[in-house]
Amino acid sequence: MNTYTIYDEFITLGKLLKDAAIIETGGAAKNFLANNDVLYNGSYENRRGKKLFDGDVLEFPDLGLKLNIVAATATEIAERQAELEEEARVKAIVKTLNANNKKAAGRQKTAANNKEQYFKRKTNKPKFPGAK
């Protein structure tokens, strides 16, 4: 029997299917539940919004898989929180780097455009009123 650790009070069946890599996207949950048998504590379940709590058991007879839902310990929750904070910090750094790169690329394009316009003006003859 495999165990799945939840870090909140509950997890929905659709989210668990996605997190456990049984399905690829959350939208595929409805189709998966319609085409496969899922036993929730021994009874059939086909609602993707079904809330699963600590101690619940999910069985997938078609896949030969049995999952036991377990609540995370305090240390596991602290470790996960640290990982989420690090992920948020890295995302913020990447966002600022991308913004700076975008600004620099914009300045380079503007400089190139100004150079082209300068040379165009230099090669073009001045136009006088009434001239064709």
From TrEMBL:
Q: Which Pfam families match?
A: S4_2 (PF13275)
Question: Which PROSITE patterns does this chain map to?
Answer: S4 (PS50889)
Stretch list, region Disordered: 103-132
SUPFAM superfamilies in alphabetical order:
Alpha-L RNA-binding motif
User: Keywords in UniProt for this one?
Assistant: RNA-binding
> Highest taxon of the source?
Bacteria
Nuclease as a keyword? no
Which GO molecular-function terms appear in the entry? RNA binding
NCBIfam families for this protein: YaaA_near_RecF
The molecule here is called Uncharacterized protein
Q: Which organism is it from?
A: Pseudolactococcus plantarum
